[in-house]
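Our consortium's second objective concerns turning raw sequence data into structural hypotheses that experimental partners can test. To show how far this objective has progressed, the report includes one record in full. It was chosen at random from the queue rather than selected for favorable results. The single chain below, 334 residues long, was entered without modification.
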Amino acid sequence: IFLFKIKRIIRSWASKVSIIADGSHWPRNPYDRILEITNCKCVIVIGANELLIHSARGKGIHVIELLHGIGFTPVPWGWDKLDISSLPTGVLSLDAISTKTFKQLECKGVKVKQVSHPWFRRYNVSGKSGIPDQLKQKISDHNYTSYILVSLAWGYDGEPSALPGVSGVLPNGVIPEALIEAIQNTKESVFWFLRLHPVQMNNEYRYWRHIKLVNNIVEENPNAESAVSSTCELRTILSHCIGHISMCSSTCYEASFMGVPSLLMCPTLAPGEPQGEKFPDLREEGFVELKVRPKSSDIVQWALRVNRQAPKNYGEGAEDWGEVVRWMLGDDRN
């Protein structure tokens, strides 16, 4: 199996030679040569590129999209409007919601297989993970009533891959002003773990305003922390939290696996809005509560009343990995 992440390769090529990602400046499809050199039987990719799909299909090679995330609904990336030549031959889904969504493409010849989420068992292990001493000391300095993880926003600051309908929702691009006020008003009762998005952490130049604002919040409020919370393993932080707050982060799924409810605040999640169908299972099971543009008092009230619940039951519908691998590598593509 030739396993790689397509966007990283495209960026690498683009930084060395003057090309554009659609390959129109190449005399031949660049992936033809890659697939010939590797002599691979199957390509697993995150972010299927049409050039790669065309090359692999032309050579009779199975090309599989491994979904980067769970809870997909509706069919993303405009795939429902593409013809079969521009779609991968298969999709590996990590949850039942995404499986149901992508099975809509089976009429176009895309096979969908559901496999167990690689992090599932880690998030369902009971007990608390040890957090770094630096953060442990800050928490132990005060007996807080509530501990809340905040998955800070990304995609609200004019990024090319921004979520639909979020323009102007967050003027500072990273955190609602009402949440900042809530942090300021709970210095004695709530501790806030502020977790930056990995994209922000990996591109400090592009997101220096976000990072500076978050650092200022931490400096002014002893009941908030970001440096360790942004780099520590997610399960470690969640094991110490009783609630999770975000605009619309899929981290609410990981939180639910550990019995931590989430408060989501993005107006695009409201019924009839662009993301109004997201998180249907979590909403139905009570793991997600939506408050569009809440006041600081609403956030504080939620943070003080939220409680852990039984972890979400996850894993139904997953197929045997051995069977899936045989399907990916076998000669029968049906």
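The partners drew two points from this record. The chain has 15 helices and eleven strands. The CA atoms of residues 11 and 17 lie 10 Å apart. Both points have been shared with the crystallography group to help prioritize constructs.
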